Amino acid sequence: MAWGKRADVIVHEREPFNAEPPRAALAAAHRTPLDTWYVRNHGPVPGIDPAGWRLRVGGRVARPLELSLAELRGRFTAHELVATLQCAGNRRAGLAQVRDIPGEAPWGPGATATASWTGVRLADVLAAAGADPDAGHVAFEAPDVSRIASPPQRFGGSIPAAKARGGEVLLAWAMNDEPLPAVHGAPVRAVVPGYIGARSVKWLDRITVQDHPSDNFFQATSYRLLPPEADPAAAGPGDGISLGPLALNSDILLPDDGARLRAGPATVRGYALAGDDREVARVDVSADGGRTWTQAELDGPPGPWTWRLWRTSLDLPPGPVTLTARAWDSTAAAQPEHAAHLWNPKGYANNAWARIHVTSV
Amino acid sequence: MAWGKRADVIVHEREPFNAEPPRAALAAAHRTPLDTWYVRNHGPVPGIDPAGWRLRVGGRVARPLELSLAELRGRFTAHELVATLQCAGNRRAGLAQVRDIPGEAPWGPGATATASWTGVRLADVLAAAGADPDAGHVAFEAPDVSRIASPPQRFGGSIPAAKARGGEVLLAWAMNDEPLPAVHGAPVRAVVPGYIGARSVKWLDRITVQDHPSDNFFQATSYRLLPPEADPAAAGPGDGISLGPLALNSDILLPDDGARLRAGPATVRGYALAGDDREVARVDVSADGGRTWTQAELDGPPGPWTWRLWRTSLDLPPGPVTLTARAWDSTAAAQPEHAAHLWNPKGYANNAWARIHVTSV
């Protein structure tokens, strides 16, 4: 299968390659196997010779750096961190059901996954470069050129400097203890836990310390939440809400949407991710549209950087049943109820309650 | 009027004194006048002689401190910060409409307000005391004894050490450039922007650097979000979600709920607060229950620590009209729709869409 992915991935686009796993596959493990990881690409996978690859660190730094892979791995302490990534377009299908979203892939709940990442801390690299502590942003660039961008340009984006200095942001060369696959950004990618996947720039080759957010198309114009009445074709740099930290989200992974089940006790499983630097505090599941809720059991260690897989058992009456799930974060904020009220022209950030429809017989 | 408050405050309780202003009063200014500020007390206002007052700083510190007011003001640099506080019970009335909440005051939208605060940074005091950088929490205590607490005890609570080290947390002796009034915590109170008001401990006299959150009743047992089915009388330490950072919220201040207006264009005004360290990104207002929205104009400077007052004009059709408002934060998260789905036994953290009912003729 293309790019080492399992045979049953849902391919949204072949070139650039964009694919997600079916729901059930994500439920199998806290750390998602590499063949099950979603892929969100904006351009062709660049062919990079690791021997010739260099990471350039510049901008507002006292000592600009140009590091080979051996230098990056040799000069800085390696760290391993388990972290979840999630695409800003995850669960867009729920928005597209409300109103059409032309030109954007109808991602289901599978544009998120969890891995252990091995790499060096961006904070350590910035310290070695003597990054100006007053600079507000750290920008990433990579050689993949997207035909989506206007004008055509290399992929890029930025994060606030305070986030960049957090020990959780890595420049990673391994994923689940295997070398980073080409489709996931080899030889080195940024990993920015708690932020939309687009900021975890793959095939990273340039880091710039600067005063302002990146003016790259994917920071200034795309990955922004426009109001419902906006014309996305007319949207320009700075319009809408810039997406960075992820909002609280969850979905149901098992049973599958549309499944036929035996009436009676059924196991329901899913994921929840608090986003930003928050933790998942509670997940509620309902078989009666939210009239009554059962608290799910949360798997895995608590923490801000990874999802919590959850499970519970609900008693299903015979007939059509809507299963609903919602998460609460560590500020006691809950997900909003309806995708209809979150609809936006580019279909980002759908964090409405999860709903699937099953029939029990 | 009691405690220097304006004549039209809504008094929820005389002893301990608990009161909030009417909606319209809050809309008048970005910085709320002192006579308009809500008061949330858990016990009698303690009579403190400023000359005898001492602030003790202990726990995991290298150099325990005991500071008089003159020493606190003389040893550390004074800072001024405009910050909004908000009670965790703000807008409880909206939850009580869903289902009764016995024993808790039915606060409207007025348990929030904004002031400029003058004081020293908690971070500077902790540095002077040589606080252990590995200690995770900073606890506050004050002499007001609450009959609500079980067993009866001094009021207290704690915040994470990382928050305590943020420059925005002050030990304040002035409010809107006036000496801190007795009912608001004279001679010195904590001001913890972005967190529930209960953490901005008034009449502060003890700070303890420690490994764990405070075991005070108001941290361990109260100010926790219980699931709907929980019996609050049976809830013990550690139950539910501990409230700390505020969740995104907003309400409508003008027109008043129940007002009769002329049909046609009407000015609608209100507030929004992102909570935690987030900013308000957008406020939408609707005269048709959320079918169509108008973006409000946001007053005042952007920033994480203060509310944004907002205003817009809507065309009101003749007849009964429901006005609805909702805010979006800088992660593109929106408020949830219905208080019914947020109901909890102690009535905390109602951040459902704002709704008021008016009649236009």
Automatic annotation (TrEMBL), chains A, B:
<dbReference type="InterPro" id="IPR005066">
    <property type="entry name" value="MoCF_OxRdtse_dimer"/>
</dbReference>
<dbReference type="Pfam" id="PF03404">
    <property type="entry name" value="Mo-co_dimer"/>
</dbReference>
<dbReference type="Pfam" id="PF00174">
    <property type="entry name" value="Oxidored_molyb"/>
</dbReference>
<dbReference type="InterPro" id="IPR036374">
    <property type="entry name" value="OxRdtase_Mopterin-bd_sf"/>
</dbReference>
<dbReference type="InterPro" id="IPR000572">
    <property type="entry name" value="OxRdtase_Mopterin-bd_dom"/>
</dbReference>
<keyword id="KW-0479">Metal-binding</keyword>
<dbReference type="InterPro" id="IPR008335">
    <property type="entry name" value="Mopterin_OxRdtase_euk"/>
</dbReference>
<keyword id="KW-0500">Molybdenum</keyword>
<protein>
    <submittedName>
        <fullName>Sulfite oxidase</fullName>
    </submittedName>
</protein>
<dbReference type="InterPro" id="IPR014756">
    <property type="entry name" value="Ig_E-set"/>
</dbReference>
<keyword id="KW-0560">Oxidoreductase</keyword>
<feature type="domain" description="Oxidoreductase molybdopterin-binding">
    <location>
        <begin position="42"/>
        <end position="217"/>
    </location>
</feature>
<feature type="domain" description="Moybdenum cofactor oxidoreductase dimerisation">
    <location>
        <begin position="246"/>
        <end position="359"/>
    </location>
</feature>
